[in-house]
Amino acid sequence: MRIGLMGGTFNPPHMGHINAARSAKNELLLDKLIFIPTGKPPHKEMAERSATTAQRLEMAQLAAKSIDADVSDIEIRREGKSFTVYTLRELRKEYRDDELWLIMGTDMFLSLETWFCFEEIFSLACIAAVPRENDDKEKLLAYSEQLEQKYGAKTRVLETEALTVSSTELRPGGGRKEIQKFLPPDVYDYIVRKNLYGISGCDKI
Ligand code: ATP
Ligand code: MG
Q1: What percentage of the chain reaches a pLDDT higher than 90?
Q2: Is 111 close to ligand 1, i.e. is its CB under 6 Å away?
Q3: What is the mean pLDDT of the chain?
């Protein structure tokens, strides 16, 4: 099997994540997709106005449902920092003979050489890089080449058009109409129902 793994804070999950996962599924012919919400992210503190870990997990489940993906709580269950290499070591035990693809956007891809045990990561999984802006592609291709030459990493830059949006932009809430178009409908309904990010069912649209 060819399995795509999409890690993220998912605070909240948005159409950029969905576009990245869907593109990976189509371009790499994935048999299975798994969203993996982080517990305590190694590279950043949780932002102000964040959803709780349980809420991020629930939102990831709602987003995943919209593209027939699974969700793993492997990182949320782990005590302490959730490093990707630990997750891959664990998943390798379960998926011994399968091809694992880590799916990530430009920001994460270009920082790979700073990740904990990154060379081991390259031995455990292939990497799919998704542009977050359309003019990212040249940078992604150049870096992908570099990783292959230096470490023998197996990487692939996806062809998809970028869908530029971030959770950081969505968290301040803003106009409901403004954020709604960047969210899977079930995630949007959940945010309204739980009054997350300052959005409530009583607000005017
Ligand atoms: P934040 O602004 O809180 O950092 P984010 O939008 O970057 O949120 P994350 O949960 O941090 O979302 O990202 C999870 C993964 O999804 C990362 O690999 C990130 O690069 C990727 N990603 C996020 N948004 C997009 C997007 N619009 N297009 C492609 N990949 C994306
Ligand atoms: Mg991010």
Answers
A1: 82
A2: no
A3: 93
Report the residue among 112, 127, 167 best suited for mutation to probe ligand 1: largest number of ligand atoms under 8 A from its CB.
167
The set of residues, in sequence order, having a beta carbon less than 8 Å from that of 156 and lying 6+ positions away, is 27, 28, 126, 127, 128, 129, 144
48 alpha carbon to ligand 1 midpoint, in Å? 17
Distance 103 CA to ligand 1 centre (A): 10
What is the band of 49 on the pLDDT scale with cuts at 50, 70, 90?
confident
Find tokens 């060379």 and name the residue: 119
Q: Looking at the CA of residue 168, tell me the nearest atom of ligand 1.
A: 2
Instruction: Count the neighbouring beta carbons within 10 Å of the beta carbon of residue 49.
Output: 12
- Model pLDDT for residues 164-179, shown as the tens digit of each residue: 999 999 998 766 777 8
Q: Specify the pTM.
A: 0.95
Residue whose CA is at the smallest distance from ligand 1 atom 9:
8
| Closest CA to ligand 1's atom 2 | 168
Nearest ligand, CA of residue 132? 1
pLDDT tens column, 74-122: 999 997 778 999 999 999 999 999 999 999 999 999 999 999 999 999 9
